[in-house]
Write a structure and sequence with these properties.
Helices cover 40% and strands 19% of the residues. The chain contains twelve helices and 17 strands.
């Protein structure tokens, strides 16, 4: 949701920001509807004043013993006019909100224009991609040959885009999540949360997933929505709340399953664990004052990078162009890990500053010390990291010619001292 005042005060800037996402101008329509609503509100105030005046006049006339029938009829007419104006104002407001509810956040000025990943800007690279004296294989070949990654059994139970991990790979996935949570909570100051995995419609709306992305979500028969990421629930921790300034920034993290329908992804990543209907992720969410959110985004990005550095995985950071950003984001950095089997970088984390976009939808506010009024929070979210994709990266980067996979030293204690995954 947007601040109407910003659109009214600078409609050209609003449309220019939309154009960076490849979207058509909208300010004129929004301002026109807002003007109509304001005019009706003014008429309502006038009708109410006239009703009050007429009601007083009725009392005065009766007190003098005079005929008040004309005034009574006038009040009845004014009552009908008021009801009609209220319906008109409500209809305009609903139209205005419906128009804007499906519109994405405006990109920051520094975000490059563009429609897709071709217009993203690489910021930096870290680490050296491993070299092999054999042809590196993709993760699903490695996992299947180890006998610990089973797509066929998963398909019989659940259909395509599911996987069964067993033995050392199941434990390795769990170990990765535990390492991430330990780093984020003990080293980076995040508070661990165990949240619900299903939410009501209002929570999905507040995070920006509804109404536009209903087809990307799974919904139960009694109208709960399965979370596509724990950002949806973590962000809503601040919904309808007023936080104290002294408690900001407030940082939370969670490790949860995530559920996505992958609508529109037919033919993409049909093999392997890159794009599943169910996967696990460690999420990072921060709530800050407006003036602190830019620095918080850099900090969050560094926390996600630190996990890959601890695991010795080469990666690069890219600044997303406006058209490639998520719905709620105003600035996003993607971290892309090197996958030798695919001979390319693939996204493993997105870190976004949403400004006050989600906070307005959720009514998430804070009060400055010594001030009476409230302001909208800024919200940020990031993957810290996508656990399944991190497992993919480990398998491909630490594979050996004999089919075994070395385990990075950072995970040895989480694996009970196991240093290598070998076939059976």
């Amino acid at each position: 949701m947007f601040d109407f005042k910003i659109i009214r005060d600078d409609p050209h800037r609003f449309d220019a920001a939309r154009a960076k996402r490849g979207l058509a101008p909208l300010a004129e329509e929004v301002v026109g509807l807002d003007n109509r609503r304001r005019a009706v509100q003014t008429r309502l105030q006038d009708l109410q004043r006239r009703r009050n005046d007429a009601s007083r006049a009725i009392g005065q006339a009766k007190g003098r013993g005079e005929d008040a029938d004309g005034l009574i009829a006038e009040v009845a007419t004014l009552k009908d006019d008021t009801r009609a104006a209220e319906d008109d104002e409500r209809g305009i407001a609903e139209t205005l909100h419906a128009l804007l509810d499906g519109e994405p956040n405006l990109p920051e000025d520094a975000v490059p224009a563009g429609l897709d990943e071709a217009d993203n800007q690489e910021i930096k690279r870290w680490g050296k991609a491993p070299s092999f004296d054999f042809e590196p294989r993709e993760h699903f070949h490695i996992g299947e040959d180890l006998g610990l990654m089973d797509f066929e059994t998963a398909a019989r139970m659940s259909g395509a885009r599911f996987v069964v991990l067993t033995g050392a790979l199941a434990r390795l996935e769990r170990a990765l999540a535990h390492l991430m949570l330990d780093m984020h909570t003990t080293e980076f100051g995040y508070t661990e949360v165990s949240p619900p995995l299903m939410v009501r419609e209002q929570a999905a709306y507040g995070s920006g997933n509804l109404p536009k992305f209903a087809d990307d979500l799974f919904r139960t028969v009694d109208d709960y929505w399965l979370i596509p990421t724990s950002e949806m629930v973590l962000a809503n921790l601040a919904a309808d709340r007023i936080m104290d300034e002294a408690g900001l920034p407030y940082r939370v993290t969670a490790h949860t399953p995530c559920f996505r329908s992958e609508a529109g992804s037919a033919g993409k990543d049909t093999r392997g664990m890159i794009r599943l209907h169910q996967f696990t992720k460690v999420e990072l969410v921060s709530f800050t004052r407006p003036e602190d959110s830019a620095d918080e985004l850099d900090r969050m990005l560094g926390c996600a990078e630190a996990v890959l550095q601890r695991l010795g995985l080469a990666y690069r950071v890219v600044l997303l162009c406006a058209g490639d950003m998520g719905f709620s984001a105003q600035r996003t950095y993607d971290i892309e890990v090197w996958l030798p089997g695919q001979d390319c970088y693939r996204e493993i984390s997105s870190c976004s500053n949403c400004g006050d976009f989600q906070a307005r939808r959720m009514k998430a506010r804070f009060r400055r010390e010594g001030k009476k009024g409230t302001e909208f929070l800024h919200t940020l979210n990031g993957s810290g990291l996508a656990v399944g994709r991190c497992l993919v990266a480990l398998l491909e980067n630490y594979q050996r010619a004999d089919g075994a996979v070395d385990i990075p030293s950072a995970l040895h204690s989480y694996m009970g001292g196991l240093e290598r995954v070998e076939a059976g």
